[in-house]
Amino acid sequence: MYEKIQETASWLKERMTTAPTTAIILGTGLGQLASEITDTYEFPYSEIPHFPVSTVEGHAGKLIFGKLGGKDIMAMEGRFHYYEGYDMKEVTFPERVMYELGIKTLFVSNASGGMNPEFKIGDLMIITDHINFFPEHPLRGKNFPTGPRFPDMHEPYDKQLIAQADAIAREKGIRVMHGVYVGVQGPTFETPAEYAMYHRLGGDAVGMSTVPEVIVARHCGIKVFGVSIITDLGLEGQPVEVSHEEVQVAANKAQPLMTEIMREMIKRN
């Protein structure tokens, strides 16, 4: 696997005309941020050697290079999920490639179900921590040379970046919440009892991505900032039916605010 990662990175380096140190992963319904990137050149996942291909509606499936906030960046428009049938080495393949390309900071975004009664649909939740409920750990197996066998996870989401995002949100009058993201396998949305359990265990939002990506990024020494857009609510005693289409609609409405915060953070870093 490590050889494949290096081959993929070499293929991209030969074709790259920029040198980004920041990467962004755009989740379900969050591809609009890609339109903010200027001076772009891109590669469909299907053309990149060894790269998985996204199969989920709302995920375009391409790697974009260009400028955002005046800085060189790379963006994944579409990610890979465990529920699609990929193993964790495939799900986190892009983060390994990012490290080889010189990425130092990773911005992750997702659409998630809120379990905190203070949340509203369309809220931005800055992720302060996570709980890993995936049945396979992304670092299982032979250790990659990018980090220690037992990596520390006391600060999976960078506190300085969180503070900076809070300051920008205050300046721009954007409502942001803080919370713990629960990463689960999917692909079913949660039952009322599951929402209640995750909330009682300390979770504020739940989704089917992000956690494996963050673990591998931190194993590589990459700083992480994460945002969840609350696209539906699973509050105790208030079960609500939810569809993938509704999640995409809610994400589309909220993403300009997320874009504004991320653009300004990249500009200032």
From TrEMBL:
Molecular-function annotations in GO: purine-nucleoside phosphorylase activity
Membrane spanning residue stretches: none
GO cellular component entries: cytoplasm
Ranges where the Nucleoside phosphorylase domain occurs: 22-267
Pathway: Purine metabolism; purine nucleoside salvage
InterPro entries found in the cross-reference section: Nucleoside_phosphorylase_d, Nucleoside_phosphorylase_sf, Pur_Nuc_Pase_Ino/Guo-sp, Purine_phosphorylase
EC number: 2.4.2.1
GO annotation terms (biological process): nucleoside metabolic process
Enzyme class label: transferase
Keywords assigned: Glycosyltransferase, Phosphoprotein, Transferase
Pfam families: PNP_UDP_1
Family indicated by similarity: Belongs to the PNP/MTAP phosphorylase family.
Reported function: The purine nucleoside phosphorylases catalyze the phosphorolytic breakdown of the N-glycosidic bond in the beta-(deoxy)ribonucleoside molecules, with the formation of the corresponding free purine bases and pentose-1-phosphate.
Protein name: Purine nucleoside phosphorylase
Source organism (scientific name): Hoylesella marshii DSM 16973 = JCM 13450
